[in-house]
Amino acid sequence: MAEPLVPLPGGVPGPMPTVPLPRRTPPPGDPAALAALVDRLPAAVLALDPQGCLTWLNAAAERLLGHLQADLLGRVLTEVPGGTGRALHAAGTEAADSGEPVTVLAGGGWFEVRAARAAEGLALTVSDVSKRRTVQERADRATARATLLVRVAAELSGALDGVSALGRLARLVVPVLTDGCVVTVVDREGRARDVGSWHADPERRDLLARYARVRLDTLPPSSPVGQALASGTPVSARVADVLGLMSDDRSRGMLQDLRAESVLVLPLPAESRTVGVLSLYLDPGRELGPEDLATVRAVAAQAGRAIDRVGRQSRQIQLAEALQRSLLTAPPAFPGVEVVVRYVPAAEAARVGGDWYDAFRHPDGDAVVVIGDVVGHDTAAAAAMGQLRGLVRGIAHSRGAGPAEVLRGLDEAMATMHPGTLATAAVARLEAGATRLRWANAGHPPPVLVSPEGRVTALGDDEGDLMLGVDATAERREWSLALPPGSTVLLHTDGLVERRGSTLDEGTARLHRVLAELAGRPLPELCDELLVRLLEGTPQDDVALVAVTVGGDARS
Known about the structure:
Layout: E1 2-3, E2 21-22, H1 31-39, E3 44-48, E4 54-57, H2 59-65, H3 69-72, H4 84-98, E5 102-106, E6 109-118, E7 121-128, H5 130-157, H6 162-173, E8 180-186, E9 192-199, H7 202-218, H8 224-231, E10 235-238, H9 239-245, H10 249-257, E11 262-269, E12 274-282, H11 290-327, E13 337-344, E14 354-361, E15 367-374, H12 379-399, H13 403-417, E16 423-430, E17 436-442, E18 448-450, E19 456-458, E20 479-482, E21 488-492, H14 504-518, H15 523-535, E22 543-550
Antiparallel strand pairs: 1-2, 3-4, 3-7, 5-6, 6-7, 8-9, 8-12, 10-11, 11-12, 13-22, 14-15, 15-16, 16-17, 17-20, 18-19, 18-21, 21-22
């Protein structure tokens, strides 16, 4: 007789059509046949009573536990010799409590345990997932290696201090490629020093750091470090063999206490020399596969290139700084005029700027002050700065030119001598024996006038004329102003008023406000205090300024 099929709770909501199905009484099961069927399953199946004793298991469970069914039935699973039963029982209990499968290392492989608890005890199914686990671990290691290379590239690519960046490299390669790491750099005179270390075991980090401080003084040339530095090729060795080469008891004891089994030393290659080595200390049982070795070689190559690049940049910066210092000289003395100059380099050591100033006597006795900024922060900018400074003097002396004519001549010369170079400049000329100021401005921040009463005013247009290097035929205007005695004129580069997070107008307003507060102070003190207040100790760009006071004759 057909009866309607009743839907299970939680099934599809709404009315369900009645489907007539024949109802039959199932035949009685054959326990032996069922056991034989379960025996053929690749997964291990176990049943435990409430006391944890085995009441049933299939053939796969026999193989997993390493004992025959007859010997296992009635025994407590956790007491089965070998430790596998204890691991399975713990994983099964956790799986039953959480309702989720638990992966466990047991019997030399990885197994996924599922479990269900009832009044009769605990039932477990155990599936071998070793192959799946191995594939996943390989994928995870490949991802870790790729991530490491990206992190190393990010750490080293923009490094301004190669030694500091390499010191942090040890923390990147541990533990992806090694258990412990020491990084060594070699200067151009061949002197080696360890600059960083790290260990995966927190208890051995300080020991490795102490060993790194003394090892280079005690390791012989025949050690892996010495061989790698001499040959420029990777060298591997057993730590036991390295210990046999060491004569210093203190450092030998430290290396022994690190409990490493082997060491791999890789040179850090540059274009013409080895700039350092990477020492990897591997614990017992750890080996580097082909993919690991390829990765660590790539890391070493990146590090070598970074050190080489930073070294070249450092030498270029030192050259540019020397050139810049040679050009930023003290001003001469002018009768009746006080001139003060100041220059502050950027806080970021690698930014050698093109900011410059000059003050010189015109052939007819007038005082000429100039300030400029070549676009760029490198040796080329510093070299262009020096040439422009010389050109200004040459044009002013040969032509007897005024400020506007000086800028025109400078623009024409740049078109042939420095095509592509861009610069801003302001030239001011104070007539001898008088108080008339003439000035011209090529895209530079406008000069600032502080009156004897302390009023602060920008001179000329806010932007001036077109910057130099854009159009040699551009118009160059000239302004003129009679200065009352006691007036101060300030010429400065944009680093004085530009700040991250502030607009140029806000920076200029801040400059004018501080100048008004400092008005009346001695000119050297005014300039020093102005820099302190506006830069707050951390200039983000080079800053140059020239201050001129009419009615004085000191210079500083």
